[in-house]
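Researcher: Predict the fold of Fe-S cluster assembly protein HesB.
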Amino acid sequence: MRHSFHAMMDMEYPSAASIEAFHSKIFSSWPACRRTFPWRETRDRYSVMVSECMLQQTQAERVVPKYSAWIERFPDAATLAHASLREVLSLWSGLGYNSRAQRLQLSAVQVMDKFNGEVPSSPLLLKTLPGIGEYSCRSIPAFADNLDVAAVDTNIRRILITEFSLPETLPPAKLQRLADAVLPVGRSRDWHNALMDYGSRVVTGKSSGIRPLSRQSAFKGSRRWYRAQIVRELINTPFMTVAELQDKYGECQWGLDEIIRDLVVEGLVESSAGSHDSTGGRVLKISEG
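Model: Structure tokens for Fe-S cluster assembly protein HesB follow.
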């Protein structure tokens, strides 16, 4: 049964009784919906940050082996900060969006330089790190520290819209205010995990008909796909020439030169007219920082 809630210009909050009923519904359903993941077994803020970065736009089940391998190789910010980008990207391979791995490493560098090696617990400070946005700056301390902050991702947005009969066009700021209002004090960690599991098993995108704010396009043959292919090629070899990449991916309709230029600008790839190429063309390799 949905609770009545009107999304007006001046935000009206649900009643205390409605909030209590919502809490009861989510927590009572949790035993049947509960999932187990390795990042739920730790309170280490760095490890939670790694999991939250990996889980962005990637299914949790796919993240599990990558997360475990990552924590084994890079158990703390110091180890990650001093690793080569090639190794970082190699371990990240398969998760997509290689720039996320790069930003995670840059975050580790800043954690070492600005926070004495300890990932901060403050959402305001977390948001200063590369790749940490509105959701992650709240979810990291919620899961690691049980901090009383509400984080709204695609799953939680879908649940709030469904349970409180809200329009899908409700601005994110108003949805955040609702999430803040219904957060059970002192149970932030359990609350967010229970909501995630409820959204995964009960109020799914298919059952609710609620579309995410952004949708991924087909991957193979997309601009993202070509970016990933180029990075994968360079991870597995000391260097490649642009001519070699053009021979393999010349059919790219997105402009191979433009994609390569973007990768260089972003710092993922280095370009030079090095001595390795007898034709005098440009040589590419993974950035050495």
